[in-house]
Amino acid sequence: MWKAPDLHHYLKLAIGFCLVYVVLKAVQLYFHRRRQVEIFKQFPGPPCHWLMGNADKFKRDGKDLDTLVNWTEKYSGAFPVWFGNFTAFLFITHPDYAKAIFAREDPKSSLSYGFLVPWIGKGLLILSGPKWFQHRRMLTPGFHYDVLKPYVKIISKCTTDMLDKWEKNITKQKTLELFQHVSLMTLDSIMKCAFSFESNCQKDSDNAYTNAVFDLSYLANLRLRHFPYHNDTLFYISPHGYRFRKACRISHDHTDKVIQQRKKSMKQENELEKIKQKRHLDFLDILLLARDENGQGLSDEDLRAEVDTFMFEGHDTTASAISWILYCMAKYPEHQQKCRKEIREILGDRQIMEWEDLSKIPYTTMCIKEGMRMYPPVPGVARSLRSPITFFDGRSVPAGTLIGLSIFGIHKNANVWENPEVYDPLRFSPENSANRHSHAFLPFAAGPRNCIGQNFAMNEIKVSVALTLNRFQLSPDLANPPKKIPQLVLKSLNGINIHIAKLK
Known about the structure:
CATH class: Mainly Alpha
Number of strands: 11
Strand order of the largest sheet: 1-2-7-4
Oligomer: single chain
Transmembrane segments: 12-31
Number of domains: 1
CATH architecture: Orthogonal Bundle
Cofactor: heme
Distance between the termini: 101 Å
């Protein structure tokens, strides 16, 4: 008579399979580590903890980036950094190494950028290969100066709204945390410039879409920094995972609604000419009109990915840049005064910037660039090598190597910049700039994968800095200096706090 196998038999089989899997995985990790150790023998680096690698040196206390700078001084411009015992990045902090990497089109590292995909999809930031090249070519017309020109007045109005709010609050509180205010302003600007969308987010910061964008930025950073959340299942079942999915739905619903409304209006005959008569041609118009060599436009999925990518890259990074630059202005009053004098000579009694003004503030522009050298809005980027590379000094690494390009480290490298901790705008005078290494200053990265929106960002930074200095005296909050933390953008653990006073 046939007898069914008992539960105990199946349990033993399951345990056996689990043990075999664990052993095979352990062997795989062992040989993977041995291979990485062999690769990085040629690159001396900081000593590793037996379990944590170098991760225990990053304490999120505002000194993590300074640790990288110290390692740069000790181990030259390229050294391995281990996150745990099995994952290592070759950190690059010298322009000669950076030049070799930025000249290529290697994909972004999924370990650093993969967590953004559920939110921003596979747009320019994430894509690689032929599809990235196709999208880059289709989107480039959206950043032509004819398209950017009308944005200056829009950014001026958004900045003025922010400054009006400061002026109302100045009687209550003279200390201001910059990032929260500037971030709302850049979000307002990007929605008006890129999508002709009136968000009203500076006056009503509690609307669902605004909160969703801020939540997504925060949660993507949180997931990146917390190793257990790297596991999709653990993150999915966590309260943070639920909050992330909810924010994604709100963001995607909003983006889809804006795209569909615009598509519907553009179906009308001669709509493009009507648009030009009513308002500026915006980024969404460019996206919808873009065609590849076969006459094909972007799919709905690609459209949403590029819109959400532009929303992320266009507000958070610029908010970081503006906030740190204004902090520098507060910290160095002699430069603040020189900038203000230059700005007032251009503006006179005007309260808004014009397109032509942007090229007439050279000293302010030098101060902006020095602020971005001291505090680069994107402190680092990561690549996964598609093919082997040999650097200028003869050292090589194979395909699959993870590269961490520390923009902050390059900007603070004492072998590249004299007295790198000193704020000196004259580094960016025409004569000094002419003699500088092409990859010593990288606030927008470099090479074929550089920031496509860098001109838009620089215009927004110039407008907001100029209008702020024209209206307010800034001074540092000496009792509460910022503590730098490297996230997807450079932020401060305790905010970026300054004192403000209304000028006559």
